[in-house]
Design goal:
The complex is a heterodimer of chains A (617) and B (340). By secondary structure, chain A is an alpha/beta fold. Chain A is 36% helix and 21% strand. In chain B, the strands form two sheets. In chain B, strands 2-1-3-4-6-5-11-7 form an eight-stranded mixed sheet, sandwiched between helices. The chains are: A alpha/beta (617), B alpha/beta (340). Strand 9 of chain A pairs antiparallel with strand 12 of chain B, so a sheet runs across the interface.
Chain lengths: 617, 340
């Protein structure tokens, strides 16, 4: 096996590297990227990824809009982003090259499949001349490899058709990159066995293509050196690589387990939320009941029934689906039932950019329902954090009898990072109480409130607690229909106070950096990594800046106002036109400046650094 | 020590909640509410095991008036609410109360899917052929040409037949009754409750304010024997004050014939509620005044697997095959590595 022979060429040590695979959407680039990620994680690097793909399932081949990419940042230190720029780019055709080249660092490694740079593909990519020949790539270390030819040769005698042979090219590309960064092939070989075990010829072809790519790097003189990124010093423990959506599903299972509730998950397929439904559907042995509803409205209203029945009821969708769920969410607010609504945000409005990320549904979450209709809102900060956040969401939901909205996003959902597997036996219980029945003949009041202003969660099947809930205003305590003006004011205020009161039970907000200073960077959700990296970098450069990252968006942390007033200026970077900024300004009367981007892409660290420098300059 | 295991005997009054019933005087909903209490008392399911779920509309206020568990939800969504409840709590007896607008207009999609999934729930559609709560706009069952607040020049959209819709979705139990047919209604509700699977019952309901008399032909003592035909499984389709008229098949179409004039009982169409094929039930659901008497009673009553059982079975099967869920094992599945 090639991997056991050890490197025969010079080895350059790096602290981190960023690699991007790109090609047609049918070229298997997502697979190449995820295998590279998994392998890098297994060798002990910290990793962060950014899969980026077109909305079309199979765009016409060779066109620029059909290019699919997967970026992996791996390092021997803690990293929080998939990297601004790419150190090594693998481009499977001209369209992939021209659409991705701007992100490659000058002098970076550029590996192209030269066989695809024919007249037709150059025309499709709108290239006037062949970039492999016109000297336009002189600034990069260009490796022009005949991947199609070499792959076909490697699988020649297996009796595969041309199409099937060519489908192995991504494994050739992987093999070559694995060699370049001194990664072992074993995990991918295991993957091949697992995935293609039932089709021996295909499995063998992929194995050969992978090995051929690896050996190509080893033997050709073109590559003079290999790179190596040492293990990262992560906290001790057992790890696995996890995407945000998978972490969300795991977190939901953990929350159900911790609370002793049966998990009921209803959803209607929508990118980028569907994977949560897929993942949960695979774990029926946990007792999870998954319901693929006829639409998002049915999904959220089925939660009302399930929650009334005592289940842990959860739905996940994205912007357009969340819009449809608004009426049902309002009913959950009105009936004061605990449920979780996950919004994996994507570019909007309407269908928008279905496969691209955005953070523009915060105001929808806050205000996108009729009437005074507050609910709790939380946002995870990284893929692995999705695991924690949904458990916190469930704890808040049952403690306060309220729906909780979780704002994930496409970047977190599809991106991945190492996740330290928790010791399940140490997870604490989430206390859930269902009143047992009337005590010594007393009347039952479905809207009698406890000190948290939560009403009792009495469930059908309990003798003596029969009660009716619904969307018409209720008299406090009794739950009878009431049109009394004073009661309505009281109930509206009570529902608002209940949500506001959650803040008393949340941890105080902390900042990373000095407790007062010239600039505070205030962020939320998936921009955490980029903001964190930029602020730490600025701190190292001696700048007076701190980072405050919000997990709790409604209610906001109770010391946030104090924090905001401890800095001369506040910068709020968001992947929207200033939604958190609007809320913070109106809530605290503190001026903030926005850094706003709506391009379907996460922030680069450089964009943030530039803004920080400018504001402190 | 002996334990008393007999269930307390419930009376219809035990099902009355403490809420004032606030329908208009003369509304057909009063009678349906009353017969429901009678039926439930007879069925004997404990009140705490019974849940009423409704959408929005006059009829959908129903849950407030029942001393059971209940959800008054949002317009058209009751079937979806009931789905979540039934899937997570299959042991409960779940009743959906809906109106013609609620079920067939805004909630058409949910109705269709609840029925085709065959959840073990009872859907009772109060059909007054009008929007009551919003004060008199036409509904999906209003007749062509009907003048309403929103159609001063008459309705131009074709009415839906609720039963044809339900049968089109292959509902396993389909029946029709009339608000003022007290005994028939009680009996129909009881049979719906006894059915395992989705029971769909249309109840002709008078709206005394916005569509008064829409069902007069079915309730008027002088005409009803000619306009209404009571279905009985295994029996020929006979109607008329003198039981001398019947329905015969002419090719694939029904026709009204008079017995005696060369037509014998055996020539008539015989009702078969248990045939797996929904064609006969569909044909019956198409019989409309003034050309035909309108059938009441049970159109279709067949057995089929229930959705919630399917879900529960998959959970059991998964546990059989893989053992109960083990979080630690799941989290550690796939490729992992250890940092010392
Ligand atoms: C989303 C939404 N749209 C419209 C309404 C207004 N609305 C309330 S009841 C109703 C019609 C009810 O008609 P039907 O189902 O026939 O019931 P009925 O009142 O006649 O019993 C409408 C349109 C609403 N409550 N919610």
């Amino acid at each position: 096996m090639a991997t056991t022979t050890g490197p025969s060429k010079s080895v350059v040590e790096l602290s981190s590297a960023t690699v991007r695979f790109c090609g047609d959407s049918g070229d298997g680039m997502q697979l190449a990227g995820s295998q590279m990620t998994l392998t890098s994680a297994l060798v002990g690097n910290d990793v962060a990824t950014f899969p980026d793909f077109p909305a079309e399932i199979r765009a016409p081949r060779g066109k620029k809009f059909g290019v699919s990419g997967f970026q992996i940042h791996f390092a021997s230190k803690d990293i929080y982003t998939p990297g601004d720029q790419v150190d090594a780019l693998v481009a499977m055709n001209p369209a992939a090259l021209v659409t991705n080249l701007t992100d490659l660092v000058p002098g970076g490694v550029l590996i192209v499949n030269a066989d695809e740079f024919n007249k037709n593909n150059l025309r499709l990519a709108e290239c006037a001349t062949n970039p492999l020949e016109d000297n336009s790539l002189a600034n990069y270390q260009l490796f022009s490899v005949d991947m199609t030819r070499l792959t076909r040769a490697a699988v020649e005698d297996l009796g595969l058709g041309v199409k099937e042979s060519d489908r192995c090219r991504n494994f050739f590309a992987m093999g070559l990159v694995f060699w370049l960064y001194d990664r072992p092939l074993e995990p991918t070989l295991r993957y091949i066995d697992d995935k293609f075990g039932k089709k021996p010829a295909i499995a063998e072809a992929n194995r050969r293509a992978l090995t051929a790519g690896y050996n190509y790097g080893e033997t050709t003189d073109a590559f003079v050196s290999q790179y190596r990124v040492e293990k990262a010093k992560l906290p001790a423990g057992k790890y696995k690589n996890i995407t945000g959506n998978q972490a969300t599903a795991y977190g939901l299972l953990a929350a159900a387990n911790r609370s002793g509730c049966e998990l009921f998950f209803a959803g209607y397929p929508i990118t980028p939320a569907s994977d949560i439904l897929h993942e949960l559907s695979r774990h029926k042995n946990f007792g999870v009941r998954t319901f693929q509803a006829e639409d998002e409205i049915a999904a959220v209203t089925s939660l009302i029934g399930a929650a009334y029945g005592g289940a842990m009821a959860v739905t996940a969708s994205s912007g357009p689906g969340i819009a449809l769920k608004a009426e049902g969410a309002a009913l959950a607010v009105m009936t004061e039932l605990p449920l979780i609504i996950i919004n994996v945000q994507r570019g909007g409005p309407s269908t928008g950019l279905p496969t691209k990320t955005e953070q523009a549904d915060l105001l929808q979450a806050m205000f996108g329902r009729n009437g005074e209709c507050p609910l709790a809102i939380l946002a995870p900060r990284s893929p692995a954090d999705c695991f924690e956040i949904v458990q916190e969401a469930w704890e808040i939901a049952v403690n306060f009898m309220t729906p909780v909205m979780v704002l994930s996003d496409g970047y977190l959902a599809n991106g991945s990072e190492p996740w330290r597997i928790p010791d399940v036996s140490t997870l604490s219980k989430i206390a859930v109480e269902h009143p047992p029945g009337p005590q010594n003949g007393s009347l039952f009041y479905p809207y009698l409130r406890n000190e948290k202003l939560a009403r009792p969660w009495a469930i059908p099947g309990t003798p003596g607690l029969m009660h009716r809930i619904g969307g018409i205003e209720k008299q406090d305590k009794t739950g009878s229909i009431s049109y009394d003006p004073k009661n309505h004011q009281h109930m509206v205020d009570t529902r608002a106070n209940k949500i506001a009161g959650i803040a008393q039970h949340l941890p105080l907000q902390t900042v990373d950096g000095p407790e007062r200073g010239r600039l505070l960077v205030l962020s939320w959700g998936g921009t955490y990594g980029a903001c964190q990296t930029a602020v730490r970098d600025a701190l190292e450069r001696g700048l007076s800046v701190a980072h405050c990252h919000l997990r709790y968006l409604n209610p906001l942390p109770r010391n946030l106002g104090e924090i905001l007033r401890s800095y001369d200026r506040v910068l709020v970077p968001e992947l929207n036109r200033g939604q958190l900024r609007l809320l913070v300004r109106s809530e605290f009367l503190v001026d903030c400046q926005g850094l706003n981007k709506v391009q379907g892409k996460p922030f680069t660290v450089k964009e943030l650094s530039r803004q920080i420098d400018q504001m402190l300059g | 020590m002996s334990v008393d295991t007999t269930l307390p005997v419930l009376t219809p009054d035990d099902f009355a909640s403490d809420q004032d019933v606030r329908w208009c005087p003369g509304c057909g909903d009063y009678s349906i509410l009353k017969q429901m209490k009678v039926a439930l008392a007879a069925i004997g399911v404990p009140r705490e095991q019974t849940v009423f779920v409704s959408g929005i509309g006059c009829s959908s206020r129903f849950p407030y008036y029942m001393n059971t568990y209940g959800i008054h939800s949002i317009h058209g969504r009751a079937p979806a609410v009931a789905t979540g409840l039934k899937v997570s709590r299959p042991e409960l007896s779940v009743w959906v109360i809906t109106g013609d607008g609620d079920a067939l207009s805004i909630g058409g999609n949910h109705l269709m899917h609840a029925i085709r999934r065959n959840l073990d729930i009872n859907i009772i559609l109060f059909n007054n052929r009008i929007y009551g709560l919003t004060k008199g706009q036409y509904s999906p069952t209003s007749v062509l040409g009907q003048v309403t607040k929103s159609t001063p020049m008459g309705v131009v959209d074709n009415p839906l037949s609720p039963l044809s819709v339900a049968i089109g979705c292959e509902a396993t139990f389909v029946a029709r009754s009339v608000d003022v047919y007290a005994k028939h209604l009680v009996d129909t509700l009881q049979r719906a409750a006894a059915h395992k699977g989705t029971s769909f019952v249309e109840v002709y309901q008078n709206c005394s304010v916005f569509n008064d008399g829409a069902w007069d032909y079915a309730t008027d003592k002088s005409s009803k024997s000619d306009t209404v035909l009571e279905l009985t499984h295994g029996k020929p389709l006979i109607f008329g004050a003198n039981k001398d008229k019947g329905i015969r098949l002419n090719g694939t179409l029904p026709e009204v014939v008079t017995l005696g004039q060369g037509v014998r009982e055996d020539d008539l169409l015989f009702h078969d509620a248990h045939t797996p094929e929904p064609t006969l039930a569909y044909l019956l659901s198409r019989m409309r005044q003034p050309d035909f008497p309108e059938p009441i009673g049970v159109f279709r009553d067949v057995q089929a697997p229930c959705y919630e059982d399917g879900i529960a079975r998959q959970i059991d099967d998964a546990r059989q095959a893989r053992g109960p869920g083990d979080l630690q094992r799941l989290f550690a599945s796939g490729e992992t590595w250890t940092v010392e």
